[in-house]
Amino acid sequence: MRRLAGPAAVAIAVTAIWIGNSALWTYNLTLVGAYAIVVIGLNILLGYAGLVSFAQTAFMAVGGYAVAILAVEHAVNPWLGLLLGLVLAGVAAALIGLVLFRLRGHYLTMASFALAMSAFGYATAAVGFTGGSVGIAGVPPLSIGSFTFTDPSHAYLLVWLLVGLCAWAGVRARDSHVGRAWRTIADNEDVAFSLGLPVLRYKIIAFVIAAVMGALGGALYVNFTSYVNPELYAPAIIVNIFLMLFLGGKGHTLGPILGAAIVVIVPLQIAGLSDIQAILFGITLLVLILVLPGGLLDAASWRALAAPVRRLRSRERNAPAAPVKALAGRARR
Amino acid sequence: MTAVHTRTDLVATGLSKAFGGVQAAQDVDITVRAGAISGLIGPNGAGKSTVLKMLSGFLRPDRGTLRIGEEDILGLGAAHVARAGVVTTFQHATPIGELSVLDNVLVGMTRLHAGGVLSAITGLGPARASEREQRREALELLERFQLDGIAHTQAAQLSFGQLRMLELLRAVAARPKVLLLDEPAAGLNKVETDRMAELIRSLSQERGIGVLLVDHDVPFVFAMCEEITVMNFGRVIYAGNAAEVAEDAAVRAAYLGQEGEGA
Fold first, then answer.
1. Are A197 and B79 a contacting pair at CB < 8 A?
2. Between A220 and which of A34, A262, B86, B160 could a Cys-Cys bridge form, CB atoms 3.0 to 4.6 Å apart?
3. Nearest C-alpha of chain B: how many angstroms from A65?
4. What digits encode the pLDDT tens for the residues B122-164?
5. Where does chain A have alpha helices with state H?
6. How far apart are CA A123 and CA B88, in angstroms?
7. Cα gap B163→B150, rounded to integer Å
8. Do B134 and A177 make contact, defined as CB atoms within 8 angstroms?
9. Which class in CATH covers the domain with range B10-95+170-262?
10. Complex ipTM, two decimals?
């Protein structure tokens, strides 16, 4: 079942494009893919290693601005810009991780939030470098020779290929000795210490992978929309990214993809409708998280949800028998 | 303490630790010999846990020395101490519930795994061969103790007794020179306790692992150990032969006399 996750993702993606064969639909699904990559990274960090970090948007910004600044201001090939963005995000994450993972729990989370806020603040304030709140427009698309990914369906295929690659890498890492170490650290850090695991190193590995995927998603998004500005990395986006993961199901391979699809697509579909629709969407999400805390793909959450119904049914079935048993017990006493 | 130590004896001298005004452990000497099973007993609050935490690197002693063989491991921290060969198990069994039994044993071998994360993801480089080798070794270990039948069962599905055995096997998988076991038989029934005792004995004999049992269960420790250290109020009140400990007046007064109340 778990091994089918990758092919299933591709199948879903292909079906989706077939169902809604329109340029807008394809474009929207391309954005879903870019976010899905960001959330797959967060899933490795949070779903596997148990580290709650809000810094994912900071690394998206690194990827997005790297590709925009290099391509627009310095005429660097977008592919090279994207690659440099990933390397920069990875190196930055490794260095930041050395300091950040001296903290644990809420302190770690707060420090990571400060990181995200700093990135947002810097992008807004450094007008000469990032274009400030106006941002940078005219980011050229990715291309291979004369084959450019300006055509939405080309971009779509590229992004979803990368989604599949990232999901596959995540599964491979999860099922390796590194993944087992992550689970152990998430479950009980003292056990990891007692067995001599280099806990800090494994945390940094997860953080770097998440950062690189964050930067990849961020860069792809900017490439396809051809535009970057600080609002792409605003605090509200952090919330959205967490919502995507928890809605889909953290720790589940397809959770980030499903979550990204819902959080990106549904608001677009209801955007033209009244404000009430948006509020209803918010309430629906809240209720979903409340009744399915493990996410939509979490079987255990569905079972827990169905449990009262099952109990009620079995009570009905046993109803005639129960009083007899109770009487027998009383008589014996 | 002028005995000749082998290269893998764990030797602690003068370990002391105070919490605020409370002297939890004072001048504790303790030796865990390679291939032998030693015991550390004492009434509740005697300082056993404090000593265990200092030996395993989870607690930094105020004073004292701590060596395994020639290596000074005082104040190194738990992960370093484990890498030097001193591995601890916990009082509450801690296998990872969502992982299989086999995977839990493999967790114990993590630090011996060759290859980094990229090698593991791509299947290139040393990770693949190392993974195969470790799986084989882990299965052998499970087979040796008749747990191979549940190798692919989720640890969350195990009975309490099985969890305790898995906890021990995971520690053994880390190839320790010395095992520190915190109440390994706590909560086990008679059959499980016997099985645990046999497991610990064979591990010690077959692999030359030095074992320290830290336990409340006096009969269990007496049956297992040649040498016993008894603590009370943070001090060692007896250290020596298990057969003679029951004759010691101080021990009887401090510990065995309280048996009735404790149980």
1. yes
2. A34
3. 26
4. 888 899 999 999 999 999 999 988 899 999 999 999 999 999 9
5. 5-19, 23-42, 56-68, 74, 78-100, 105-125, 127-130, 152-174, 177-187, 189-194, 199-225, 235-248, 255-269, 275-291, 299-318, 321-332
6. 49
7. 11
8. yes
9. alpha beta
10. 0.90
User: DSSP secondary-structure letter at A140?
Assistant: P
CB A233 within 8 Å of CB A26: no
> Quick one: what percent of chain B has pLDDT higher than 90?
66
Structure tokens belonging to residue A233: 């990395």
| Distance spanning both ends of chain B, measured CA to CA | 35
**Rounded to 5°, angle at Cα A247 from A244 and A248:** 80
Beta strands in B33-159 (DSSP E): 37-41, 63-68, 71-72, 86-89
The domain A2-297 is placed in CATH, from the list 1.10.1060, 3.40.50, 1.10.3470, 3.30.70, at 1.10.3470
Cβ(A224)–Cβ(A159) below 8 Å: yes
Residue of B nearest to A176 (CA): B120
Contact B195, B207 (CB under 8 A): no
Residue A43 tokens read as: 């899933």
Is there a contact between A194 and B111 (Cβ–Cβ < 8 Å)?
A: no
Amino acid at B256: L
Contact assessment for residue B105 and residue A172, using Cβ atoms and an 8 Å cutoff: no
Q: Which of A208, A210, A231, A236 is nearest to A221 (CA)?
A: A231
Give residue limits of the domains in chain A.
Answer: 2-297, 299-333
Go through A22-39 and write b for each residue having 16 or more CB atoms within 10 A of its CB, e for each that does not: eeebbbbbbbbbbbbbbb
Q: Is B62:B18 a contact under the CB 8 Å cutoff?
A: yes
Ranges of residues in chain A with a pLDDT under 70 are 1-21, 145-151, 271-274, 316-333
Contact B99 A191 (CB under 8 A): no
Report the candidate in B222, B95, B185 with the shortest Cα–Cα distance to residue B147. Answer: B95
First to last CA, chain A: 52
Within 8 A by CB and 6+ apart from A271, the residues are none
Query: Helices A199-225 and A78-100 meet at what angle, rounded to 10?
Result: 150
Of A178, A190, A197, the CB nearest to B117: A178
Question: Residue A324: what pLDDT?
Answer: 43
Contact A194 B108 (CB under 8 A): no
d(CA B14, nearest CA chain A) in Å: 23
* Cβ atoms A149, A158 nearer than 8 A: yes
Helix axes A199-225, A177-187, angle to 10 degrees: 110
Q: Which two tokens stand for residue A325?
A: 């048993």
CB contact under 8 A, A177 and B121: no
Q: What distance in Å separates residue B136's CA from the closest CA in chain A?
A: 14
> In this structure, what DSSP letter does residue A240 have?
H
Domain boundaries, chain B: 10-95+170-262, 99-157
Query: Which among A176, A197, A207 is the top mutation candidate for probing chain B, defined by the most B β-carbons within 10 Å of its own β-carbon?
Result: A176
